[in-house]
Structure formats: structure tokens, C-alpha cells
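Crash report, auto-generated. Payload:
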Amino acid sequence: MKEFTTDISGYRPKVSQSEIEKVITDTTSGTTGKEKRVYYTRADLDKTVGIFMKGLSEVVEKKCIVCFPDTGPDSLGDLIARAIRNLGAEPVMAQKDMTYREILELCDGCDSFVGFPQMLIALTRIKPGLFKKALISGDYCINVDYKIPVYPHYGSREMGLAGAISCRCRNGMHMRPDVDAEILEDGELVITTHLEAMPLERYRTGDYTCIIDGKCDCGSDWVKIGPVSRHNPIEKLDDEMFSKYEDLIDWRGDTLVFKDEIDKKPLFEGKRYL
Ligand SMILES: [Zn+2]
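Recovered output after restart:
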């Protein structure tokens, strides 16, 4: 079996420089300070738009607000806007320095939302019933009642921004078929990608999920994964340290519990959840 890929700083694209259409540079790769570059050809970007179209086709009707950064041609926001236009709908782009009031004004006539979950929560809290459906990506909040059908999406730069999409069943996310998924014993997702500019062999994503077995009711045979969580080493360390304290119920503050409820409910193993 092939070795894992963990460090992609210094990766040389598999196509000539002239075929590279976009480069995303990331300087936040851990404490090493190494710069990580991810390369895409036009065909890679077109595939991304295709996957976005598949995910968005469940969500968008006529007009959709896009609350992802649109920093220029082939940026995340721009690729999503292209997918929405390809579906025959109109994208409305929120800019990052806008106030909630300004974004709410833009939402006028929009039937759907694409963006970070926190933004969706904020907008619909101010104005309930704003959208019929939403596609969210990023650290989405699993236990939130969004009051509308929400379609989580999972993606990363290494898998071409579009990674896994929710179908109409909204029970897990289908991995794009040109990305092979492998789950390690501890739940970490390892991917093998087949993109033109930057194919990766057994890349450790640092994200944790599971594969949902069985045929999906939507009829798709794309592999389906469960909710994705991102662990970081500090969290693991905290887990190790704090889970030892007998009296500590919820060091993360994940759970909103009142004192009298604590007395009534039995505690599960691990102390993090009630
Ligand atoms: Zn499905």
C-alpha cells in the first residue's frame, strides 16, 4: 500500500506551468510555517463547478445569496456563482465587509442561501422565513434547528474545493467520484484525488468522519460519508487532560445544562456529553 501524503509544501504540479489556471497559497499550515500551494488547471476548476452544480441543484430555485468570499475570477464565490448561473438561476454576491443590514437588503427576492452556517443562523434569526433552503459549508453546527432544509457540503482545497455534497435525502454527503475515500482506524479521512494539476496519493486530511454503508435512496452510487469534524492537536491534548477530572461535566461548553437537570440525568462515560 502507498505511503501517506502529509506534507504538500514544495509539491510540484503534474502539468506545465502554462496549464495552471489558479494557485491557492496557504500559509497557515500548522506551526512549521511552511507555505502550502494548491494548483488547478481549467479542467480541474470546471469539474469543481460541475460538482457545485450537482449540490446546488437541490437548493437553488431562481435567486440565491452567496455568502462565500468572492475575491476575483475562480475564487470560491466566483465558482459557486458560475454554478448557480449554469443552473439558470441568479447569484447575488455578499461582500465580506458588508453589514448584516446590507446583506439582508441583498437577500430581497432570494429563495436560497449558500455560505457559512453562522451567517445563515444570524440572518434567519433577524428575519425568520427568509429562505426556503440552504447549502452550508465549513464548521457546520449539527444540533442547530435551522427551520429549513439544510444541505451540508464538505470540501477542501486539496480536493478541488468541492468534495462531498448532500443529496435530496440529506442523510450524509456523497463524495465526488474522482476522489477515493479511506477511513483510518481513528476515523481520519484519507483521500486519493485524481485532479490534473495536483493529484494526491493517500492524503491525510486531518478531518474525521465515517463511511455510510448501503445504497442511498436518491439512487446515487457515490460513496457517502457522515458529518465531518476537524480535530486539532490542542483539542486532543485538552481532551486527554480534562477527561480525567471526575467532577467535570462539559469542559468544552458544548452542552447547555442547568444544575437541576444535571442531578436528574445520568452521565455517560467520558463526561463530555449528558
Ligand atoms: Zn443520496
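Post-recovery validation: Residues 254-274 have pLDDT under 50 and may be disordered.
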